[in-house]
Structures are given as structure tokens and as C-alpha cells.
Design goal:
It is a single chain. By secondary structure, the protein is an alpha/beta fold. Among the domains are: about 120 residues, no CATH class; about 90 residues, no CATH class. The protein has twelve helices and 13 strands. It is globular, with a radius of gyration of 21 Å.
Length: about 350
């Protein structure tokens, strides 16, 4: 599916660096794969023998990617095109590890739009739909993630600000929501942006679009931009984004920290804590929400931020020393979520 798999992903897939090294050595020796190492990028590509092996055993899932004129069947040498494949590969691996269906045999056909697939989450990579949608071929989106309740257009910024054209990404959102309507399900698409580290969120939040204004900055193309670091502890964020009752369960738990709730419908804060400071829930890392909170805190010069422990240092740096940050233990939150809806 990847066309060219980034070398660093192999250990993530098999969850053992030593086994990954042995596996790659064997596959190279038996001529299933070859190494491409140029332009600062190292990856693995299938050889003819490897393609034949996979098509014989997994034709339903892989014939789209390994036959005809598919980009992944004829990998180019240009660094930018290789990097595009790397972005998509990282998304596929990350979502697959989260238990999301990525293979074609496990998903509804796109002929009827983005159909709701019941309770399971499914992901369509951009290669699966862009060929039939001329208007969005310039989008930076890697794909569309569907849950039972929500749709997310997925981007992968990696370790630098990706190129960003508002008109093109608005077209991507419009096309996605049209496909949702055709499928008879959801009506709105939000955005999910993957990044290599938690620290990189700070650069995105502070971005001004660059000198040419062609790099990502938080805008109003999507109502919500959720940032997810591509790390294991971010699994808790994915659990919340994929399942509405889990989001509600956590919000109900956090509501116990609010001494005096606010009743205004569009208020950024949840109310006041026991020290009469405004309290803000930031654990979902919705970037538009974070920007608005910073603006409000700038006027008030105080507040309490609630977030997960691995998010705390970055949010402290973003909001400043005058803001109090209360950390939630990620392991305990995950344990709390696994107890079920009513516990």
C-alpha cells in the first residue's frame, strides 16, 4: 500500500527493532524488497517478486495499489513525491495500530459515498478517492477517517509546517461533506492533524503562515483542528475522538473539578474552580479552541488549564507562566475509559 515504506516505520509495525532488522535482512536477501536511500530519505520498495507474492495472497486489498498506473505501483525518485508516500505511510501505520480498518476488503465501497460503517472506524487514503475527484487533487490531506459519529479529514505535518492553501483545503472539506451526504450519514467534517512529536504543536499554534503565507496556520477552514502526536501515549486522544460516549464520559469526570459551572452556550471556559479561576478543558488539543483560550487568558491574565500529562509542558509554554496547568494521568484515564460506558 505504501509504495515506499519509511525505514523507521518497520520497528513500529512489528514492535521489535531486532526482529525488524532480521526481517528486512531476509526480505532483501530473498529479493522481495530493495532499499532506496537518497535525498536524506531511506525507505523500502517492493521488487517484482514481492509484488507477485502479495497479489497472490492479498489481491482484494492490494490490487488497487500494486497494479496499473497507481502511484504506489510506479514510485518516482523525486524527494517530494517520496515524502508524500512517507506521509501517507505514517498515517496508515498509526491508524492501523489504533485498531482502525485501513484495508479495502474491510470497508464499504466508495461508489455510494462515505457510508456509515456501524460502530467500527474506517480510513480511506487519498489514493483511494483522489483519482475520481479532480477538484481536490492539490489538497494536502492524506485521507478521511470515519467513525460512527464523526468524520475527520486527516493530515500529516510530520516535523515541519506543511504547505497549505485555504481555497484548496476548503474544497477538500466541501467534497468530503458532499460524500458524507451521498452516504446518508454524517453532515460535518473536522480535521485531524498528525505530527511527529508533542513539542511540534507549539510551532503550529504560533505559525503565521510563513513569508509567502503558503504554510499551515490555524484558520477557519475547519471548525475543529485536532492535533495528535504520533506517539503511543496519544492513544487516549484517539479513543476520545473515535467514540462520542467516551468523550462525554471524560467531560463528566472533569466537570467534578468545576465548582461554579458557566451556563453560556459559547463560553470557552467551563466555569470556575474552587479558587475562583476560570477553568478550561484542553485535553483534546483542538487548536482553534487553544488559540481562543490564549486570547481570552491574555485579557484576564489567569486561568486553569486541564490537560493530559504528556501535553502539559507544551501547553505551559504556550499559555505562559501566569496560567496554572493541572495534569491528568494518561494511564489512569485510559483505565477509566476501558471500564465501559456506565461505570
Amino acid at each position: 500500500m505504501s509504495g515506499e515504506l519509511p525505514a523507521g516505520l518497520v520497528g513500529e509495525i512489528v514492535e521489535s527493532e531486532s526482529y525488524a532488522a532480521a526481517l528486512i535482512t531476509r526480505l532483501k536477501k530473498e529479493n522481495y524488497i530493495s532499499v532506496r536511500n537518497a535525498g536524506g530519505y531511506k525507505g523500502y520498495v517492493l521488487r517484482g517478486k514481492g509484488k507477485r507474492y502479495l497479489l497472490e495472497r492479498y489481491e482484494d486489498d492490494l490490487s488497487f495499489f500494486l497494479s496499473g498506473s497507481a502511484q504506489t505501483n510506479h514510485v518516482k525518485s523525486e524527494p517530494e513525491k517520496r515524502l508524500r508516500l512517507y506521509r501517507m505511510s505514517e498515517v496508515w501505520v498509526f491508524l492501523w495500530k489504533m485498531g482502525i480498518e485501513i484495508f479495502q476488503s474491510q470497508k464499504p465501497d466508495l461508489g455510494n459515498g462515505f457510508e456509515k460503517s456501524g460502530k467500527k472506524a474506517v480510513y480511506y487514503g487519498s489514493l483511494e478517492y483522489k483519482e475520481s475527484a479532480e477538484a481536490i487533487k492539490g489538497s494536502r490531506a492524506c485521507g478521511v477517517l470515519l467513525t460512527g459519529d464523526t468524520a475527520y479529514v486527516v493530515y500529516n505535518t510530520m516535523a515541519k509546517r506543511m504547505k497549505w492553501a485555504q481555497k484548496m483545503e476548503m474544497a477538500m472539506r466541501t467534497w468530503t461533506e458532499r460524500m458524507l451526504l451521498i452516504g446518508g450519514g454524517l453532515r460535518q467534517a473536522d480535521s485531524l492533524i498528525l505530527g511527529n512529536t508533542m513539542d511540534f504543536l507549539l510551532e503550529l499554534l504560533n505559525s503565521d503562515g510563513g513569508v509567502r503565507k503558503n504554510l499551515y496556520q490555524v484558520d477557519d477552514v475547519y471548525e475543529h483542528y485536532y492535533y495528535i502526536p504520533r506517539t503511543d501515549n496519544a492513544k487516549v486522544q484517539m479513543e476520545l475522538l473515535l467514540t462520542s460516549w467516551k468523550r462525554e464520559k471524560i467531560k463528566n469526570l472533569l466537570a467534578t473539578l468545576v465548582k461554579y459551572p458557566r451556563r453560556k452556550q459559547y463560553a470557552l471556559s467551563e466555569g470556575f474552580d474552587k479558587d475562583m479561576q476560570l477553568i478550561y478543558f484542553c485535553h483534546e488539543l483542538d487548536m482553534r479552541h487553544l488559540c481562543r483560550i490564549k486570547q481570552e487568558i491574555g485579557w484576564k491574565q489567569k486561568g486553569t488549564i486541564i490537560c493530559l500529562d504528556y501535553q502539559a509542558n507544551v501547553l505551559r509554554a504556550y499559555f505562559g507562566e501566569g496560567v496554572r496547568v493541572r495534569e491528568l494521568n494518561t494511564d489512569k484515564i485510559m483505565e477509566y475509559l476501558t471500564k465501559g460506558r456506565d461505570e
